[in-house]
Specification:
two-stranded antiparallel sheet, alpha/beta
């Protein structure tokens, strides 16, 4: 059989071909590696979920109930600590009823003991709640005719305006149960029937709360002034359900008072309406929501709790050392605040922290590798002067936890009742009064009773 002899390719041409093929393969490898890297990053992002421990999401949105608090272990055992004074049920020296248990015969021999004097051995007490029955108080109006001929008719008390009405104690109890204990209208209606033997319809409950809030309006105005001219104010806002739609609940608070209001807007129009002059005397503590940051104030403080949660998320998501070092720097500042409430600006300890912050904000972060970390760095650079004011002012806390506690009450109310159908304004007003009473250590039910006895102020 005849064989065909193949001529070899030109060596130079073969080298050129192989080089070109090698270059194309390298480029393809680089493209595939980048694709794998991007897909791995996407998979990693999908595994890192935001929750209440690494973002501003409320705990109710967490998929699990496992606590992921930012607090570090204190080293103390759980429960009451050594030296803590406990509370227990104690006997009273003046019981309302005394039941004497005196034997009439001997269990051993059967003889009667009625003629033998009894000797005290011991005592036990049981605490009971007597049946609660409504008291109907009747006011009877009389007249007298003067010798001058004028007929003088007695005046009813200012609080008695109808032929039959609920008294101050009933109004106060409804305000206490609905606004402080978050009892829904239907359960409150049942509570008054079963426990107080007084049927009150859900419509009447709504009217009573509106009337009680109208009486408390002057106090609400005073609370607003305390906040407006305070030296430190914390602010926050949250969404709430209203008749299937959405409304916004705003709070401004400090150590003396809490002011809560509802609005259809989350924008600065709400702040301008309620506080047109802003807070000219105050350092305003908030998260980085633009409406809060743009509010006119003497100064601003970013909430470090918000920042620490964001940093925790970035550490989980992008694993940057920058986020970890920023977290440790903020914790150093908070620890300084615990040791001393106020520092001079030339104090070496705070100068060191400020210097370290400047270095972190000037550090280069690759956008392609850590875009979210870069976003936070740019934001903190923009608000650089809002990070450490708490170190220079004894009245300014490093966090905005007071506002978050006030907002949490709204969330609890929503969890229990589902949504506001009506009365959201009354709730915010009365909750402002209640939270302010708590801060002033004033008895809540007593305060609401006094408010219920007040007349409704005339409309302006």
């Amino acid at each position: 059989m005849h064989q065909i002899k193949l001529e070899p390719l030109d060596k130079d041409a073969e080298i050129v071909f192989l080089k070109q093929e090698n270059t194309e393969l390298k480029e393809r490898i680089i493209t595939l590696e980048k694709l794998v890297f991007d897909q791995q990053a996407q998979i990693h992002q999908l595994t890192i979920k935001k929750n209440s421990s690494n973002s501003s999401l409320p705990p109710s949105t967490d998929l699990t109930r496992k606590s992921q608090s930012l607090r570090t272990p204190s080293g103390k055992n759980p429960g009451g600590q050594i030296g803590h004074e406990g509370k227990t049920l104690e006997m009273t020296e003046t019981p309302d009823e005394i039941h004497k248990i005196i034997p009439d015969y001997c269990n051993y021999c059967g003889k009667e003991l009625t003629e033998i004097e009894a000797q005290f051995e011991s005592k036990r007490q049981v605490v009971e709640i007597p049946p609660i029955l409504p008291i109907y108080v009747e006011f009877q109006c009389y007249s007298k005719t003067c010798i001058c001929g004028h007929k003088q008719i007695g005046d009813y008390p200012d609080s008695v305006t109808n032929h039959i009405q609920y008294g101050a104690s009933v109004e106060a109890m409804i305000g206490y149960q609905s606004v402080y204990q978050f009892t829904p209208f239907k359960r409150l209606h049942e509570l008054f029937i079963h426990c107080f033997h007084l049927p009150i319809s859900e419509g009447s409950i709504d009217n009573i709360l509106k009337r009680l809030s109208a009486k408390a309006l002057p106090i609400y105005g005073v609370i607003k002034k305390i906040i407006e001219y305070g030296k430190q104010v914390g602010a926050d806002e949250t969404g709430a359900k209203l008749n299937g739609g959405k409304t916004w609940i705003w709070t401004w608070q400090n150590v003396f008072a809490t002011f809560i209001s509802t609005s259809s807007s989350r924008g600065q129009i709400t702040i301008k309406k309620l506080f047109p002059n802003g807070f000219i005397n105050a350092i305003l503590n908030s998260d980085r929501w633009r409406s809060q940051i743009n509010t006119n104030a003497k100064g601003h403080q970013l909430c470090t709790s918000h920042l620490l949660r964001e940093l925790k998320y970035l550490i989980q998501l992008e694993k940057t050392s920058w986020a970890e070092r920023m977290k440790q720097l903020l914790l150093r500042g908070i620890e300084l605040k615990r040791k001393c409430t106020e520092y001079a600006r030339d104090n070496p300890l705070v100068e060191e922290i400020e210097s370290d912050m400047n270095l972190l904000l000037a550090e280069t972060i690759e956008k392609s590798q850590s875009p979210k970390t870069l976003n936070l760095q740019e934001s903190l650079t923009e608000y650089r002067s809002y990070i450490f004011p708490f170190l220079y002012n004894a009245e300014v806390p490093p966090d905005n936890n007071g506002s978050e506690r006030a907002i949490r009450n709204i969330k609890v109310k929503q969890k229990v009742s589902g949504q506001f159908k009506t009365g959201q304004d009354a709730f915010c007003l009365l909750r402002s009064v209640i939270d302010t009473c708590i801060k002033s250590k004033v008895d809540i039910l007593e305060a609401l009773t006094l408010i219920a006895q007040m007349p409704i102020p005339p409309a302006v």
